[in-house]
Amino acid sequence: MPLYEIDGEGLRRHDAARFAALGLYERNDLQRLLRDDIAVLSPDLLVVAEEFGNWEDSRRRIDLLAVDKAGHLVVIELKRTDDGGHMELQALRYAAMVSAMSFEEVVAAYEAHLAKTRPEDEVDARIELLNWLDVSDGDEAPIVSSDVRIMLVSADFGRELTTAVLWLNRFEGMDVRCVRLIPYQIDGRILLDIQQVIPLPEAADYQIRVGRKVIEQERRSSDNRDWTRYHIVVDGQVLPDENKRRAVRLMLEKLVERGVPAAAIGKVLTPGRFRPIKGEHHTDEEVRAALAEQYEGVDVSRWFTEHAFVEDGTTWVVRKIWGRNTEPTLNTLRDAFPEAGVSFQRAR
């Protein structure tokens, strides 16, 4: 597939290159590059393992194992060939093998992965995963869905493979995606065109929405906790729905944007959920350090330190955990500052 450059008044054609001719290999190059910047495939992925093969009597290993925001494991298989080989069959076997993994097993895999890739960082794998899934450490362990997503990444895909993927995606619970990597060598530089070809992005967005509903249904059937989501409404404009903690944070953000002083909000909310910190702190690291210093014994992971409000020499932070207080709090904020035009409604 050629790439065209606008060169003066005409088009300059650049033909696609081959990974082998460029000296790029699956594991040492493509896998490493995608592992370190997985968002180029999808922004909702966190890599938890590389070359994963934690099962008996098998030498086969998953190139990359990730988890998405909804709690699905994602098997990512890589090829640099032009037809993808039989990678869909291989990925299906892997998906079946990891489908029974518990949250604690995912934590263990992520701990091992961090020890290899980020040994110098003092990262708590469990806390980082909980934050990724937007679940509090005080809650029960989150549910890892038994529906495993599959992402096939290759220079191109043969007709047999694409036919199989389209057929698989007809079945409930199946989410198989094909992402094409096309390399180009232009003026001594190597460029990479990354395209999701199955399903088309528009169809993928719809599939994500359907999948999220399934996850919510799984959660409701597993316990009696309230998983209600909320839309924040600004001057009649309904924003995308959020879970409870993010809905409260977003409402505070919109109130501040529309001129409501954080100090005024602090008089409405209890200090245990909206806290002032002396001084102006602008980065997540600064806020975390100041919060820990000024409030002895506080668990900084339970506060939105990356979304602080700085005002008149004071930094304000909001707590993540709201539980049954969510809707009463949203009501209080709406009624206290009606002039701001910020309201909310339950998601259907």
Automatic annotation (TrEMBL):
User: Which molecular-function annotations from GO does this UniProt entry contain?
Assistant: nucleic acid binding
The protein's name is: DUF91 domain-containing protein
